[in-house]
Amino acid sequence: MGISPRPAGRGADVHDEAAAADVAASVRDALEGVFDAVTETCTDTAALLASVTAAGGRPATADLAALRPGLRDRLTRPGLVSGAGFVAAPGLLSDAAAWLEWWQRSPDGGVRPLLLDLDPEHSAYADYTHWEWFALARDTGRRAVAGPYVDYLCSDEYSLTLSMPVSVGGRFTGVAAADVYLPDFEAALLPVLQRLDGPACLVNAHGRVAVSTDVRRLGGSLLKGPDFAAVLEGPAEGAGHDGLHLRSCGDIPLILVSTPGQRPRPHDSTR
Q1: Degrees (nearest 5) of the Cα angle 152, 158, 160?
Q2: Which class does domain 33-179 fall in?
Q3: In terms of C-beta density within 10 A (0-12 exposed, 13-18 middle, 19 or more buried), how is residue 189 classed?
Q4: Is it the case that residue 149 has pLDDT exceeding 50?
């Protein structure tokens, strides 16, 4: 799809490559703490579901209450996480077709549960399986970053969701996830992108722009053309595509898209 490895050059090219590598590493470091929380939720959930199954039972919503102390702990730590929990795959639970064991920070600094009506006869959000944060983790079997989008399901705020699949005995059972409010995400990562000499953005595996210093590529828009999944699987030094340089951010499923040698235009991150 037009992607080819970009060999290291000299002079300005070497500087661009070094700067991009530094920025990608900083993105990884900034978001690894969020994925640490997601991983903890994934580990707790898989152990809980395996225990219920080993005892000869089928999980129910009441069983998921055992996850709550860990979720509350993750939400009271300093960091970017604004909401966290487990989202069950359809058919997993004996007493609910759909379920979110989800907790979030409240405006007063406390932690509260998310209470949703997911009855398919009354709720437009009963089928969450097509949402990017669920589908990407389920379909790839890996970490995923979705958004930014207006999170009508949980907070009604512009957010990003970081997720990963939860599997027990090789069976997909749902996703563990954490939300980050877009203003917090931008505050953490825009200064990092602004260290580059040219305009840049971060995109997910589908090419959706998560944050950008490039007025031509706004947050939430889609960047088309490159095979972003191939970049995530490719060499650490990244690849070139039509004047762009694409580089993965370590284990974080985001791709740094930069335009070497161009100064970024002024960027207003307000909405």
Answers
A1: 95
A2: alpha beta
A3: buried
A4: yes
**Bond from prior residue into 148 cis (ω within 30 degrees of 0):** yes
Judge whether 175 and 153 are in contact, CB under 8 Å: no
Strand partners, 244: 241
Start-to-end CA distance of the chain, whole Å, equals: 34
Helix axes 12-54, 68-76, angle to 10 degrees: 150
Condensed to tens digits (0 to 9), the pLDDT of residues 199-237 reads 999 999 889 999 999 989 988 899 998 898 889 888 877
Q: Starting from the edge strand earliest in sequence, which strands make up the sheet with 83-88, in order?
A: 111-113, 100-105, 83-88, 171-181, 158-168, 144-150
- φ/ψ of 158, rounded to 5, equals -65, 125
**Same fold for the domain at 4-29+184-258 and the one at 33-179?**
yes
- DSSP character string of 168-216: ETTEEEEEEEEEEEHHHHHHHHHHHHTTSSS-EEEE-TT-BEEEES-TT
Reported as a pLDDT band with limits 50, 70 and 90, residue 106 is confident
Q: Within 13 A of 246's CA, how many CA atoms are on the CB side?
A: 29
In the chain, domain spans: 4-29+184-258, 33-179
User: Average pLDDT, stretch 83-109?
Assistant: 93
| Residue type for position 132 | E
In CATH, 4-29+184-258 is 3.30.450: yes
Share of the chain above pLDDT 90, in %: 62
CA 35 to chain CA centroid, nearest Å: 8
- What whole-number distance in Å separates Cα of residue 186 and Cα of residue 184? 5
* Total residue count of the chain as it appears in this document: 271
Tell me: pLDDT of 154 over 80: no
pLDDT beyond 90 at 66: yes
Q: What is the largest CA-CA distance in the chain?
A: 65
